[in-house]
C-alpha cells in the first residue's frame, strides 16, 4: 500500500507504534542490526517465519484441546458399576450392539479368539476334575473289567466309572492346554491378575488388546515369519499348532464325547461342579465353536468372558436412535475388590450410573469366599447412594442375571436359608425379586443426600433382544436428563 492511500488514522497509529517500538527495550532488542547483510536478513526472516508457524500450530492445538474439552463437557458420561461378574462388560456389549452396530462388527475377529479361549478354559476345568478323580481311584480298562473295578463300581449308584478311555482322551486333549497357555501369554501380555493368577482371561484396560488379538490371529499374521508376528509352528500333519481354530477342530470329537460322557457327568455331579454356571461357558456349543469354519454369532460375543482389569473408557457416537451423532463416554470398571479403589476418580461429572446387581443370594465372591455376593452388592449400592460425588447423578439399577435367579429358585434353593429375614414368603421369582427390589429402593431413599427417582430394571444381559429394549428406555431417560441439565429443553 502506498503512503498516498493511507488514511490519517492509520498513519498516526503507525507513528504511535513506531514510538512505542523505540521506547520498548524488548522491541529495541528485536530490531535488525543496522548493518544487516542481505543474507543475514533472509536468514532472520526465515527464522521469524518458522517461529510464527510454530506459534500458529500451538494456537491451533490449544484451540483443538479446548474444543475437545468443551465437547467432553457436552458429552454424556455413564459409569457401569457392580461387583465382578455382575454383567457390566456384557451390558456394554449390548449397548454397542444396539446403538453402534458397526463398531460391534469391527471387533468380531478379536472376540472369536476369546470365545475359543473360553471354551478351552472350560475343557481345562473338566480335565482337572477328571484328573483328580483318576488320581483318587485306580483306572480300569474298558473291555476287561477286573473284580476290583466291579467291586468298586458296586459302591456307586449309578455306576459310571472313569477308565483307560478317559485317560486316552485326556492325553489327546493336552495340546489344547499348552496352546491356551502360550496363546494367552502371547496375545494378552496384560493377562495378569494378582488375585487370581492364570485362572481367567483378563486384560488391562485400554491396553489395545482387541487390536493386538485381531493382528495376531489374522491369517496374514500367521502365515508371516516376521519376528513381530507369532511364528507358526506347523506339526507333522500340516496343522498350525498355534492356531486355536485348527487345534480345536482336531480335538472336536474328543471334546464333545468327554462332555457328554455319563461317567464324567457323574464325577462332576458328585464333586458339586456346575460348569454351566461359570462365566464364558461354551461347552454345550462345542460342535459349532470347535468347527474349522467357526464364526462367532452376536450372542457368542455378548456371552464371551474377559475379566476387566482397571477402568476402560469407551467413546460412542450414537449411530441411531433419537439423537444420532450424540457423543457418549461409557466407563466399564473391573468389579473385584482390589479394583474398586480405581472407581472414584471417574465419579466426577458423571450423568448416570448403571449399577449391576445380580440377586445371587446363594453365591460367594470369587476373590473372598467368606462374602455373600448379594450382601456385597447391597454394600456397594449403599456406598454409591451415599457418595457426595454422585449426589447429582441418576442411578439406574439393573437386577441382572434374572435367568440364573429363576433357575436357582426352580431348583428349589431356599432364599430363607441364606437370608433369614426373607421369612416364609413364597420362594418364587416374583416375590423374591419384589423383596430385594424394595430393599434397594429403601437404601437409595435413606442414603441419598437429595431425593432422586428410583429406576430399576430386571435384566438378563445375555438376552440381547430384551436388553436392547431396556437400553433404549435407559438411553432416552439419560438423554432427557442431560438435555434438561444443559437447559436445552
Ligand atoms: N446367565 C447369565 N449370564 C450373564 C448375564 N450377564 C452376564 N452374564 C455372564 O456373566 C459373566 C460375567 O459377565 P461380565 O459382563 O464379564 O461381568 P463384569 O461385571 O464385567 O465382571 P468384571 O469385569 O470382572 O468386573 C459373562 O460370562 C457373561 O456372559 C445374565 O444376565 N445371565
Ligand atoms: Mg468386565
TrEMBL record:
One of its GO terms (biological process) is adenylate cyclase-modulating G protein-coupled receptor signaling pathway. The keyword Hydrolase does not apply. One of its GO terms (molecular function) is GTP binding. GTP binds at residues 277-278, 400-403, 461. It comes from the Eukaryota. Keywords: GTP-binding, Magnesium, Metal-binding, Nucleotide-binding, Transducer. Mg(2+) binds at residue 308. The keyword tRNA processing does not apply. GO terms for cellular component: cytoplasm; heterotrimeric G-protein complex. InterPro entries: Gprotein_alpha_su (IPR001019), GproteinA_insert (IPR011025), P-loop_NTPase (IPR027417). Residues 212-246 are annotated as: Disordered. Transmembrane segments: none annotated. Residues 218-227 have a biased composition (Polar residues). This is G-alpha-domain-containing protein. The lineage of its organism: Eukaryota, Fungi, Dikarya, Basidiomycota, Agaricomycotina.
Amino acid at each position: 500500500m502506498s503512503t498516498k492511500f493511507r488514511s490519517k488514522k492509520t498513519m498516526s497509529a503507525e507513528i504511535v507504534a513506531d514510538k512505542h517500538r523505540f521506547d520498548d527495550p524488548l522491541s529495541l532488542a528485536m530490531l535488525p542490526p543496522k548493518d544487516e547483510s542481505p543474507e543475514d536478513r533472509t536468514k532472520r526472516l526465515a527464522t521469524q517465519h518458522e517461529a510464527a508457524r510454530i506459534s500458529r500450530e500451538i494456537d491451533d492445538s490449544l484451540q483443538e484441546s479446548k474444543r475437545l474439552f468443551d465437547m467432553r463437557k457436552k458429552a454424556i458420561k455413564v459409569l457401569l458399576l457392580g461387583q465382578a461378574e455382575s454383567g457390566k462388560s456384557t451390558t456394554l456389549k449390548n449397548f454397542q450392539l444396539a446403538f453402534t452396530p458397526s463398531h460391534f462388527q469391527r471387533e468380531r475377529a478379536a472376540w472369536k479368539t476369546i470365545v475359543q479361549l473360553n471354551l478351552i478354559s472350560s475343557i481345562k476345568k473338566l480335565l482337572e476334575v477328571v484328573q483328580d478323580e483318576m488320581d483318587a481311584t485306580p483306572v480300569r480298562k474298558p473291555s476287561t473289567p477286573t473284580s476290583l473295578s466291579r467291586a468298586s463300581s458296586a459302591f456307586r449308584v449309578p455306576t459310571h466309572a472313569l477308565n483307560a478311555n478317559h485317560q486316552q482322551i485326556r492325553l489327546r486333549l493336552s495340546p489344547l492346554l499348552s496352546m491356551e497357555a502360550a496363546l494367552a501369554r502371547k496375545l494378552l501380555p496384560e493377562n495378569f491378575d494378582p488375585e487370581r493368577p492364570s485362572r481367567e482371561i483378563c486384560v488391562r484396560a485400554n491396553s489395545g488388546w482387541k487390536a493386538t488379538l485381531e493382528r495376531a490371529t489374522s491369517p496374514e499374521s500367521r502365515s508371516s515369519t516376521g519376528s513381530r508376528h507369532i511364528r507358526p509352528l506347523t506339526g507333522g500333519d500340516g496343522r498350525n499348532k498355534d492356531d486355536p481354530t485348527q487345534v480345536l477342530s482336531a480335538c472336536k470329537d474328543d471334546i464333545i464325547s468327554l462332555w457328554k460322557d455319563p461317567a464324567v457327568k457323574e464325577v462332576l455331579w458328585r464333586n458339586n461342579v456346575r460348569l454351566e454356571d461359570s462365566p464364558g461357558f461354551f461347552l454345550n456349543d462345542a460342535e459349532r465353536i470347535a468347527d474349522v469354519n467357526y464364526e462367532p454369532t452376536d450372542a457368542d460375543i455378548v456371552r464371551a468372558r474377559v475379566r476387566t482389569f482397571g477402568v476402560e473408557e469407551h467413546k460412542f457416537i450414537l449411530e441411531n436412535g433419537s439423537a444420532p451423532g450424540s457423543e457418549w463416554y461409557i466407563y466399564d470398571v473391573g468389579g473385584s475388590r482390589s479394583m474398586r479403589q480405581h472407581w472414584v476418580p471417574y465419579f466426577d461429572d458423571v450423568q448416570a450410573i448403571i449399577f449391576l446387581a445380580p440377586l445371587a443370594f446363594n453365591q460367594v465372591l470369587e476373590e473372598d469366599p467368606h462374602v455373600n455376593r448379594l450382601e456385597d452388592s447391597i454394600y456397594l449400592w449403599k456406598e454409591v447412594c451415599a457418595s457426595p460425588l454422585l449426589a447429582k447423578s441418576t442411578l439406574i439399577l439393573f437386577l441382572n442375571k434374572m435367568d440364573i435367579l429363576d433357575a436357582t429358585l426352580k431348583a428349589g434353593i431356599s432364599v430363607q436359608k441364606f437370608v433369614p429375614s426373607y421369612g416364609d414368603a413364597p420362594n418364587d421369582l416374583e416375590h423374591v425379586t419384589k423383596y430385594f427390589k424394595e430393599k434397594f429402593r429403601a437404601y437409595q431413599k435413606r442414603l441419598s443426600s437429595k431425593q432422586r427417582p428410583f429406576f430399576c430394571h430386571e435384566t438378563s444381559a445375555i438376552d440381547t433382544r430384551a436388553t436392547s429394549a431396556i437400553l433404549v428406555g435407559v438411553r432416552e431417560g439419560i438423554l432427557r436428563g442431560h438435555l434438561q441439565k444443559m437447559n436445552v429443553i
